[in-house]
Amino acid sequence: MSVQVIIYSSDRIRGGILREILRRNKTETLLLDNIMDVKSAISSHKPDIAIFDTSNSLKNEINSLKHLSSSIEECFVMILGDALIINVFHDGNLWNKLFLTDPLDPEIIISKSREILSRIQENRATVKSSDHDSTTAPVIRNIENMEEKPSVADEDIDLVDHNLDIEHLESDLRQYLKLD
Amino acid sequence: MVVNKNPVEIVAVIGPKGGVGKTSISANLAISLAQLGKKVVAIDLDLGASNLNTFLGIRSSKYTLDDFILNKVGKLQEIVLETGLENMGFICGGNIPGIANLHYSKKMKLIRNLAMLDYDFVLLDLGAGASYNVVDFVIISQKSLLVTTPEIPSILNTYSFLKTLVFRRLTMALKEFHNQTLLDLLEQARDVEKNPHLKRMDDLVQVIQKIDSSASRLVKQILLGIRPAMILNRIRSGKDEKACVAIENLMRQYLGIECSKILHVHEDASVGHAIAKMKPVMINNPGSVFANDINEIAMFLTG
């Protein structure tokens, strides 16, 4: 199985929500709650995106995440959480980072993930056709400019199974509340 | 002294998730009620994490709830502060260590004093979470306003809060029957994973009926009486407004309770601007979308 997104969250509910919305968006994900596992999963699975949800994390976990995020160059890193905590991630390498502050907004996360994945696909195709070395870093670097043109993902954003769809929302709630 | 002839209406404002805009709504709702000519006191009961004063633009206070908790004053009325706004008083929250775990006797003293306040509305700005200290203030309130945002974590916490509220209220009532079987049954029903046959309130009521029919009648009466209003905050689109329908369905099916009303508060930049200025939105930008939504809530409360 090719894992496109690795999620770290020590908050069971938030992590579950992230995994579920990405899964429904047909994105292969791996949810982890241990930073050491995240580190080894990134090197073994080579995901396109790593999502670090800082909510509920302890100070030492935040420090480890900060250290890990600054050392990652092979994939895009999305950092979620309280604005004050996210601020500590703002130094160093920012070209492959995206910061999304609370409240957790599945619609934005899905939209951004789709945008990033779509750009990576595009860039890989371009690199392959021009027969260049397809290292991930130049692919990622092109994502820096992704705000310049709207992606296809934006056009059908309403189709994303965000919490606005009552049936899906109710089904999600039942699942999380173990009412099924 | 002008005596307020009508009984005081205690309104609890709860945001089980935390960070959903509860305090901003409480502060501005109190002002809106006061502007409608109602005599209001806003009380910061976010014990241990109080900050309602900052939303009202009050930088320092002569008295706080600590003075009442520590018996420095005898009556709650003595620590009501002037807000500079007509018809509106304010009680600043306490921050003494351990206040979040208010002792039962202190809580009861506070509850008794709330009912004695000479106001049309006593607005309680309660803390996040579902601790019994929060739940009990909701139980003694005539109306409760549950603040949530459309995001799943907030909705989940709101449901969990309601479940705690329902079971707390039922446990209190069924204790009067001195029947341990009933209490054990309630405990089992809390854990729907282990006891799926009790996951719906109807299922539970039927089992109670077999044990004691008068207990089941009481349970039904209590459930009919739990009718919180839901405030859906930070709505960004028409679709966001639907989020409450899902939780309403779950409330009805699994907890046996209904919402009395769903109220909408739309995302509005004026809230952030007002907070930055430490001024209530109702004063800083009374014509804003947020202010209009708050006025709607005030109209709902005043009937």
CATH class categorisation of chain A: Alpha Beta
Please name the fourth-level CATH homologous superfamily of chain A.
Response regulator
* Number of helices, where a helix is a run of at least 4 consecutive DSSP H or I residues of chain B: 13
Supply Rg of chain A: 16 Å
Regions of chain B with pLDDT < 50 over 5+ consecutive residues?
Answer: none
Number of domains of chain B: 2
- Percent of residues in helices of chain B: 40-55%
Question: What kind of sheet is the major sheet of chain A?
Answer: 5 strands, parallel
CATH class of the largest domain in chain B: Alpha Beta
**What radius of gyration of chain B results from the CA coordinates?**
20 Å
Count of individual beta strands of chain A: 5
Q: Helix- and strand-based class of chain B?
A: alpha/beta
Number of beta strands of chain B: 8
End-to-end CA span of chain B = 27 Å
The CATH architecture of chain A is 3-Layer(aba) Sandwich
Can you give the mean pLDDT of chain B? 91
Average pLDDT over all residues of chain A: 75
Provide an overview of this structure:
- The complex is a heterodimer of chains A (180) and B (303).
- About 13% of the residues of chain A have low confidence.
- Chain A is globular.
- Chain A is 49% helix and 14% strand.
- The longest helix of chain A is centred in the middle third of the chain and has 24 residues.
- A five-stranded parallel beta sheet of chain A has the order 2-1-3-4-5, with helices on both faces.
- Chain A has one domain: Rossmann fold (3-Layer(aba) Sandwich), CATH 3.40.50.
- Chain A has eight helices and five strands.
- By secondary structure, chain A is of the alpha/beta class.
- Helix content of chain B is 47%, strand content 14%.
- The radius of gyration of chain B is 20 Å and the shape is globular.
- Chain B has 13 helices and eight strands.
- Chain B starts with 8 loop residues before the first strand and ends with a helix.
- Chain B is of the alpha/beta class and 303 residues long.
- Chain B has two domains: 175 residues, P-loop containing nucleotide triphosphate hydrolases (Rossmann fold), CATH 3.40.50.300; 90 residues, no CATH class.
- Chain B has an eight-stranded mixed beta sheet with strand order 3-4-2-5-1-6-7-8, sandwiched between helices.
- Chains A and B meet through α1 and α8 of A and α6 and α10 of B.
